[in-house]
Design goal:
28% of the residues lie in helices and 29% in strands. By secondary structure, it is of the alpha+beta class. It has three domains: 204 residues, no CATH class; 68 residues, no CATH class; 89 residues, Pleckstrin-homology domain (PH domain)/Phosphotyrosine-binding domain (PTB) (PH-domain like), CATH 2.30.29.30. GO terms for molecular function: acyltransferase activity.
Length: 382
């Protein structure tokens, strides 16, 4: 596609969709250095589904974003192509995407990369995909840093409804000269230190009151453990209340994701998520061959050409060494945990993973898919 056409579409989108986001999300900007001339790499922390448009509104040049296009609609896919976005396989290394990145830089373009590779579940900057910083060093291009504060609180990944508070974008530049003086490891550490924070705990956000409606709606996508009775998958949201369907305990959630009353769950949602992570570790270490966790009434299918080919309804059960999927007529699929790879949650709609040469998709229909990622990550690490 001709560059002039992408530049035109980029200008239109940044002044329509981007402008609307600036107003609705109350975005403020601080820029410590001038934006470099292309080619350069734009890097930001990834907390909001609309991060590319939020940041892009304030960029002087068209940015070709490396993005997950697999899980989007056909309309969104076409829109992404119009503005020069290019696909990367989420949750896995992607040689084709890397090659496209290099070609774009060699042709004098600006590239946008979110080095975490995925949006944050708890407002924390997660570990970077290895090698993202070394591209800038190898091809001698500057890095434009865009640190976003308040983006996660504006619309948490798990939430059904947005909030309004403030999003602050802090722009900085790492020059080619500075990059030349650092090793790739040192550069990656520098970028990480410039982007790393937690939106829930950040003092800058404590000064801002985030408001909205139905603040707890969707909470079951991230919280699966009740600190009061220990039940799994009993947590749901109703309005601004978090409720356990087993013991009846409830908590109030505000727009800054603080909870009351405080107790074992902590003072905010980050505390609760950390507490349930500790409980997950205890479950994994003491279970033996017992069930670690399960999710009933889900749909699993092999995926070919982005389509579900053999959908079956059943129950998904996790053990220390395997996942079992039981379905109608006593059917059973067994997956060795070690061979389950490239697992992701796609836009709160589907959990996908590779097994051997096949790709599988699980539709949780509003249930908690994130816990499967957390459990598998921990089991593979021990």
């Amino acid at each position: 596609m001709a560059k002039w056409y992408q530049d035109t579409m980029w200008w239109i989108l940044k002044n329509t969709k981007g402008k609307k986001l600036v107003e609705s999300c109350n975005i403020e900007v601080v820029s410590h250095q001038e934006e470099p001339e292309p080619p350069f790499i734009l890097m930001g922390n990834h907390a909001h589904a609309q991060d590319p448009y939020m940041i892009g509104h304030f960029m002087n040049h068209t940015v070709n974003y490396m993005a997950n296009i697999d899980g989007v609609s056909d309309i969104q896919r076409r829109l992404s192509n119009l503005v020069g976005a290019y696909g990367k396989k989420k949750g896995a290394s992607d040689f084709a995407a890397l090659k496209q990145t290099i070609n774009l830089l060699k042709n004098g373009n600006a590239i946008g990369i979110f080095p975490e590779g995925d949006r944050s579940w708890d407002g924390s900057t997660v570990d970077f995909i290895p090698g993202t910083a070394s591209i800038a060093k190898r091809y001698k291009v500057p890095i434009r840093i865009a640190k976003m504060t308040g983006a996660y609180l504006t619309e948490p990944r798990w939430a059904d409804y947005p909030r309004r508070g403030r999003v602050l974008i802090d722009f900085r530049t790492i020059t080619v000269e500075e990059i030349a003086l650092m090793s790739a490891t040192e550069l990656e550490k520098k970028i990480c230190s410039m982007l790393k924070h937690n939106d829930i705990k950040d003092p800058l956000n404590n000064e801002i009151v985030f408001t909205g409606e139905n603040l707890a709606s969707g909470i079951q996508r991230i919280i699966w453990f009740c600190p009061e009775c220990g039940a799994q998958d009993s947590i749901n949201g109703s309005g601004d209340k978090i409720i356990c369907s087993v013991c009846g305990k409830n908590w109030q959630l505000d727009g800054n994701l603080r909870i009351s009353p405080t107790g074992r769950a902590g003072a905010d949602l980050k505390d609760w998520i950390d507490m349930q992570a500790d409980e997950m570790k205890k479950i994994c270490e003491s279970a033996g061959d017992a069930v670690l966790t399960r999710t009933d009434d889900i749909t699993l299918s092999e995926v070919i050409d982005r389509k579900m080919t053999t959908p079956r309804n059943g129950n998904l059960v996790l053990y220390r060494d395997r996942i079992e999927f039981s379905y109608e007529n006593s059917g059973m699929l067994v997956f060795d945990n070690i061979q389950v790879e490239h697992y992701i949650d796609n836009f709160n709609k589907a959990f996908e993973f590779d097994y051997g040469k096949k790709r599988y998709r699980v539709i949780f229909d509003g249930k908690n898919a994130s816990k499967w990622i957390f459990f598998l990550n921990y089991l593979k690490a021990i």
